[in-house]
Amino acid sequence: MAAATAHAGRPCDSRQPPSASTVQQALNLAERTHHALNASAAQVVVLARAGQDLSRYGLRYSHLGLAYRQANETGRPVWRVLHKLNQCGSDVAHLYRQGLAEFFMDDLWRFEAAWVKPSPEVQAHLLALLHDPTRTAQLHRQPYSMVSYAWGEKYQQSNQWAIETLAASMLPESDASPVTRLQAQTWLRSRGYQPSVLRIGALTRLGGRITAANVAFDDHPAEKRFSDRIETVTVDSVFSWLIRAGLAQQGVATQR
């Protein structure tokens, strides 16, 4: 598991240290979210933050993590977040375990948390996986594109890792036959998951590919790419699917 030094898709050398106000807002959001999660009686939630303004695509949140409750050394409940982060704007990414304060410290566009509380069955499967370092990393792939094709295997973006890992937790496996990304994606299709379709034109695609190492479109089927249809995993599509598929106990909860 990598050390918590990466940032969500932005070059590290272009970042300024967070202001005192930003740090305080992140800490306040983390504290309020901690209390709300404790009150929810959940053991695991699918947790999101708003790190970018994606309103042009009709999206509210940018980044998913799998948050779980555990006891600290004194027996008090704490929340940890396992999520995938792009390495300083490059084309690789790593997995991180962070506290809520670290999760919300990453230069947010809007200081707002959102989460979905999975069904008891999904929580139980996820919790078992999240405590197993081998299984949490099993479907992780370093090659990264922030708009990776939802049904592809060449790249893997952060939200894609999260939903594929959730799927893997629901599938039977053994040491001799670990779950693959293809099997996880097949399960997601069978349960009705539908990725978001982003309308991204050719000039925007070209500009993104030339100027950003963490953006690639060559994994998308040509007929979809050339019709400006980029199908990728988003927070909003995951939240909608969990509720629609009956895998969540309630709707989306938010905290500001």
Radius of gyration (CA) equals 18 Å
Count of the separate structural domains: 1
Topology order in helix (H) and strand (E) letters = HEEEEHEHHHHEHHEHE
Biggest sheet: strands side by side, in what order? 4-3-2-1-5-8
Q: Largest sheet at a glance?
A: 6 strands, antiparallel
User: Can you count the beta strands?
Assistant: 8
Summing up helix and strand content along with how strands pair, one would put the structural category as alpha+beta
- The proportion of strand residues reads 15-25%
Which parts are unreliable, with pLDDT below 50 for 5 consecutive residues or more? 2-7, 206-211
Helix content: 25-40%
- Total of helices: 9
Euclidean distance between termini CA atoms? 29 Å
Please tell me what the overall shape is. globular
The mean pLDDT is: 89
Could you give a short description of this structure?
With 256 residues, this protein is α+β, with helices and mostly antiparallel strands. Helix content is 34%, strand content 20%.
How would you describe this protein?
By secondary structure, the protein is an alpha+beta fold. The protein has one domain (12-255). It has nine helices and eight strands. The protein has helices spanning 20-40, 100-103, 120-130, 133-138, 158-169, 181-190, 202-211, 222-225, 235-244, and strands at 44-50, 63-71, 77-86, 93-99, 110-116, 196-199, 229-232, 253-255. The strands form two sheets. A six-stranded antiparallel β-sheet has the order 4-3-2-1-5-8, sandwiched between helices. Strands 6-7 form a two-stranded antiparallel sheet. Strand 3 and strand 4 (93-99) form a beta hairpin. Mean pLDDT is 89; it is low at 2-7 and 206-211.
